[in-house]
Write a structure and sequence with these properties.
Blueprint: H1 16-19, E1 24-30, H2 33-40, H3 46-49, E2 53-59, H4 62-75, E3 82-86, H5 90-94, H6 105-111, H7 117-122, E4 124-125, E5 128-129, E6 139-144, H8 145-152, H9 157-163, H10 167-180, E7 185-186, H11 195-199, E8 207-208, E9 211-212, H12 216-230, H13 242-246, E10 261-262, E11 264-268, H14 269-279, E12 287-290, E13 301-305, H15 312-324, H16 326-336, H17 343-349, H18 363-371, H19 383-398, H20 404-419
Parallel strand pairs: 1-2, 1-3, 7-10
Antiparallel strand pairs: 3-13, 4-5, 6-11, 6-12, 8-9
Length: 421
Amino acid sequence: MCTALVFPSCSKKTDSAQSGKEAEKLVVWSYSSELGDMLDEPSFGYKKKHPGVQVNYSLTPVDQFTSKLDRALHSGSDAPDVFALDVSFVRKYVEAGSELLLPLDDIYEDIKDKIDLYPVQVGSYDDHVYAMSWQVFPGAVFYRRSLAKRFFGTDDPEMVQQHLKDIPAFLDAAKLINEKSYGTVYIVSSSQDLFMPYKGLRKVHWVTNDNLFIDPAMQAYMEMCRTMHVKHYDAGVQQWSEGWFAGMNDTLTDEGGKNVKIFCYFLPAWGLHSVLKANAGDTAGDWAMVQGPVQYECGRTWLSVYKGTKSPKAAKEMIRYLVSDDEFCTAYARKTGDIVANVRTQDEIKHTFKEPFLGGQNHYAQFCQMSKNTKESLVQGSDQAIESLWNEAVFSYAYGEKTKEEALAEFRSHVKATLGF
């Protein structure tokens, strides 16, 4: 018996030529190309499996995306039916709840037995699911095998993990690398890499009972950044800068023009393919992966439906298909290496991976295991604004521009002035 949703396995044929009806239309917006690839994939993509739906897909640069989306959703004029939401702003829309978004509760009830809970937690508010993701987002440490052999005598992931098993061990490793290399190798290129791991240590939201709260883990991060700078354990570049990427392919130089090397990067599962592989160059094959000192998440993309859509069933079916369809998730994971949220797919394929870029390591099985240990989500809609101000405060202290007390006071003042907390 068919459910209220239009499932491919039990729905009537939807091709307009066969039904005699005009094809349903869906307007889909995104800020990254991966959603478009999922729609267009010729063998198993959404369009291939839903020929009766006409999809108008639009890609907008991320720095322009939320402004465009806000105008459309609040005005109701030319709003998309389905749209992508990045982790940095997903809660802003989810917490608007029924004002803007169509609940996806019925989809979740249908698929909850095979979907990882964490992405659903992030996409839920006031007991309703408003956004869903096809991914899980465990973070890890990717390190250079050749450098591990040089400093630790082994490149074996189990052995290297012991050198990075917790924060004290990580600092010991940073000191060892610094001393043995005479300052020509840094454990990380930027101490900003440690922000997401330290967020993983938090126990309390930034905003609790309408008051700003600085979790002890965030203050520990502040001290870590100061230590990394003072002791020259990081290369001092900005995360996502040209220098940060250069460290992946051995083209990073210091102020004197001398080549320096980077031992490792903290990256989420999607970062392997989208970031590290794309920038590693000749270092490909000289990498491996371990969990590192902290269990952390670094989310990517969620999908939501506009409350005013004229095609709610088709819009929700698109999300159901991309998030949970077994055939799609298996084919997509095998093609892209993405760690899908469909745990049935995870269990089916996780032992079949052997990643040449990682020296033949099966990272997929480890990521699947790590995703099972994910803590409850602490993501809030105000995070992006608060964390931008927080990082300004951290680095003013780390680089000696302000005392810790001055930096914290300025941070609190700016949050109060900007957000009212």
